[in-house]
Amino acid sequence: MSQRIGVRLFFKAEIFQKTGSFKPRGSLNKLAHLTEQEKAKGVITVSSGNHAQGLAYAASIFGIQATVVMRQDASKSKIALTKSYGAEVILTEENPFHTCQALQKERNLTLVHPFDDPHVIAGQGTLGSEILDEHPDVDAIFVSIGGGGLISGVATAIKLRNPSVKIIGVEPVGASAMWQSLREQRVVHLDKIDTIAAGLAPPFVGELNLALVRKYVDEVVLVSDDELVEALWLILEQSKLLTEPSGVAGFAGLLFEKAKIPKDSEVVCVLSGGNMDRYDLKQLLDRS
Q1: Which of 52, 55, 85, 197 could pair with 246 in a Cys bridge, judged by C-beta atoms 3.0 to 4.6 Å apart?
Q2: Could you read off the pLDDT of 235-256 as tens digits, one per residue?
């Protein structure tokens, strides 16, 4: 793939992280900073699946009761895995963020926001530090964008150590909340979401995430669902690594030349998650 694309390509394979994505990083850091009173209340969050598992796992480490609000149509395997870590899962057909807010107040729980939180962002930023530790000469890093927690953490960690590294964020065309927010210079709430990348489809990005992206990210680009699928299959066929559409967005941005990268550059693409079950895989096969 390096020869095909014309760069020295490396993958930061968070698919091998506990729970199958980068999400435990932020959750563990957030819970480590809670007071004993906040821990005793129990924690609550909202998620499409990966953050749900990440927080449930982190809460089990700390001995904290976790409640997770997920959409009714969330992946059955992600729901089951979240429950397996001991979390209570609340399924809703309403706006999951509104349901989460209502339950937090009703039960007096401690909110662990999936992306708009400084401790969560800092936890995700450890991924960027690890990249620089292993690849101090990296020229560019491609990172997927959902709510903005991952890219804001990674970009901050990278730029504070080496401002010359180019950071490119990648969003689906059908869930371009960050791309639109940058252009409007304010947080934009999406009325419609249309993408197979469920993990990159919150209806808005965080205020803090937007501010950090504006400060530290060089470029945000968009990829189509078809490009996500093509990138996923290429990684599977060439590297024998199974990602999910959300996890492969960074590589899709590089593969389809959404940003200009000089030939022979050292490039890292973050494979942010690999939580695919047989039903998800079948749907992708049907698209091919």
Answers
A1: 197
A2: 999 999 999 999 999 999 999 9
Fold of the CATH domain 2-20+118-287: Rossmann fold (3.40.50)
Contact 160, 129 (CB under 8 A): no
Report which residue type is found at 139. D
Q: Give every strand in the sheet of 219-223, ordered side by side.
A: 8-13, 266-271, 140-144, 166-172, 219-223
Q: What is the pLDDT of residues 152-172, one digit of tens each?
A: 999 999 999 999 999 999 999
Cβ-contact 248, 271 below 8 angstroms: yes
Q: Do domains 2-20+118-287 and 24-111 have the same CATH topology?
A: yes
Confidence class for position 283, pLDDT limits 50, 70, 90: confident
pTM of the complete model beyond 0.90: yes
The domains of the chain are located at: 2-20+118-287, 24-111
Residue partners of 41: CB distance under 8 A and separation at least 6:
108, 109, 110
Residue 207 is which amino acid?
E
Residue 284 scores a pLDDT above 90: no
If we measure between CA atoms, which residue out of 82, 34, 79 comes closest to residue 56? 82
- Cβ atoms of residues 38 and 65 within 8 Å: no
What does the pLDDT look like over 178-218, one tens digit per residue? 999 999 999 999 999 999 999 999 999 999 999 999 999 99
**Dist CA 248 CA 256 (whole Å):** 12
In contact, 262 and 5? CB cutoff 8 Å:
no
Does CATH place domain 24-111 in 3.40.190.10?
Answer: no
DSSP per-residue codes, 42-60: -EEEE-SSHHHHHHHHHHH
